[in-house]
Amino acid sequence: MRYLKQILQHTEQVLIREVADNIYEICRQYGNDIFLIADENTAKLLNKNILNKVSHLIIPATPVIPARDYDGSQCHATWMTPNRLNRAASLQAVNLVRNKAKDSDLMVAFGSGTVNDICKYASYLEGKDYISFPTAASMNGYSSANASILVDGYKKSFGAHLPKAIYIDTDIIANAPLRLTLSGFADFICRSTVQADWLLSHLLLGTEYNELPFKLVRNLEEILLREHLALAKKDKRVVLLLMEALLISGLGMVMSKGSYSASQGEHMIAHAIEMVTQDYSSSLHGEKIAVTTITMANLQEEILSIRNPITKPITLDVKHITQCFGNTEFIKILKQKQMMQQKIQEIICKEWSNISSLIKQNLLSAKHLQKVFEDLSIPYLPEHLNWNKEQYCKVVNLTFATRDRFTFLDLAGCIEKS
Ligand SMILES: [Zn+2]
């Protein structure tokens, strides 16, 4: 974890050791009145004594979907939304935790994505410190300052804060449900499509770009791609390398002052699909990202292979956007993007060969990514997640208008494909 020690400024420490048995003593270093959040699955990993010593909330287990590789138990618990399954952290959950934790001076997350997001956002709103005990290498949000929260049926990213410390129990992380680990791998390996999109925006529009978050994970990415099969065997060394990569990826977002280094077109498509289907429960974040990463990788390759692209105006009607997403917020974004067109056309005309060769330098091929996902039984096509293919294609075509971020999704709409 040498990189982390060098670049951590806001979080005091990331420690790796057997922590589950010592969690109370660890927490006491940071506060006296501790409020701990876990879920039904992660609470089983705790030493029972701690629950007698600290205030706590055990949230119903994350609903688990049967899947080929999943080795956990099936559960159909609901969380604050009685009529539908909901695996995302909701604002109601955050408010409940805020009320219960009023008298505490330290909040503690013992779990993965949902537990962490609830704790991060609730502690931020209450102005309290929190520490994080990740229980799976399932996402890159442990070391990011943003929290993903479900509000009125929409998942939104809120600015929050970093934990005072992150403690990793190596046994817990290595033995986490395989599906969670593989989801984390997909959320990390989208680095390739993310970097291509972010660099494209920089080269075409002069937006800020920082290569450091990618440089910091380059070696780890090489090892993970080479030894990806070890993830399926829950090999402790390789799962911990993934965890390290995810933590650095989270910090990359702090360095980039936004999610730019970890979330571009592939995340936009996944969010757009969630918005259209209102389905946040039936697959894991990283599984959606695996599918959308393959879509983006193919799209980027196709566009980059055009030698002299001919640009055309965006002709999309705003009605399409509102009909598809049921949201008028995006009209403004579409209009802004239509205004950028002339500038983009000019630069493409003059600079395309240079731009495409710079972007190609850091690209993983769609074929390579697909092979790795296939090897690990990670879903990579919309039908693998039971997404309607026709609806998926329609959403992919309109996704560019859902965010003011410029990606290959924008180019797809304004380049003539021969
Ligand atoms: Zn992600």
From TrEMBL:
**A GO MF term:** oxidoreductase activity, acting on CH-OH group of donors
Task: State if Lipid metabolism is listed as a keyword.
Answer: yes
Gene Ontology BP term (one): phospholipid biosynthetic process
Keywords linked to the UniProt accession: Cytoplasm, Lipid biosynthesis, Lipid metabolism, Metal-binding, NAD, NADP, Oxidoreductase, Phospholipid biosynthesis, Phospholipid metabolism
Determine if Lipid metabolism is one of this entry's keywords.
yes
Identify the InterPro entries for this entry.
G1PDH, Glycerol_DH
Instruction: Determine the domain of life of the protein's source.
Output: Eukaryota
Q: PANTHER family under this entry?
A: GLYCEROL DEHYDROGENASE, GLYCEROL DEHYDROGENASE 1
- Tell me what this protein is called: Jg8634 protein
| The species this protein was found in | Pararge aegeria aegeria
Where is the organism placed in the taxonomic lineage, from the top?
Eukaryota, Metazoa, Ecdysozoa, Arthropoda, Hexapoda
